[in-house]
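hey so u asked for the seq, here:
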Amino acid sequence: MSEGTRILIVDDDTQVLRSLRSGLTARGYDIVTAIGGATALIAAADTVPDLIVLDLGLPDIDGVEVCRRIREWSALPIIVLSARERETDKIAALDAGADDYLTKPFGMGELLARVRAALRRTTANRGEEPILRSGDVTIDLAHRRVELRGQEVHLTPKEYDLLKQLAKHPGKVLTQRQLLGAVWGPEYGDEGHYLRVHMRSLRLKIEPEPSRPRYLITEPGVGYRLLMDS
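ran it, structure tokens below
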């Protein structure tokens, strides 16, 4: 998948840029770099990357604003790398359109896994209603059917809608606000408790060990992601 895949790296730390360029180039990715928000916006339009790795603390335009502006014209995956650890910063980036958030310092192995997951999501979204598989779970979005080890799992409408939202963005963190808006509608009010209840019920139905989830992963204080096998 990496051959011919172009990644735009945006960071004002030249050491980080060199490290990321070296690590990603070694895996066959075509790398473009930018050291500020303004140059990142130009590079994103001119080079048309397949994915952006974006720092938030840029010297001219904050990374959240860069993400928001890119989302005005493109759906390309964006992975945020930042030293900001507060939940509010993560939520702001994800609400602005970021697909994932990785806190510095980080391991190259984890970043590569996040990159592969984001690119898989993009590939899956090119199809209209894909069938997704992970381990013993199969999700057929075209027929609203979920199977566990070949046997249909009966989900409530809300459970299915939550799983569908996560399945359409495999590996991506969806915030509680995004899930509530998509499933309960814009006037969802205080449904946070019900979201947790439905996620707990989903885990009981599809997870091998609900107390140690393999698929439905909680990002504390932020939201949830669905992990799919490579």
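The first strand starts at residue 6 and ends at 10. The CA atoms of residues 55 and 145 lie 39 Å apart.
lmk if thats what u needed
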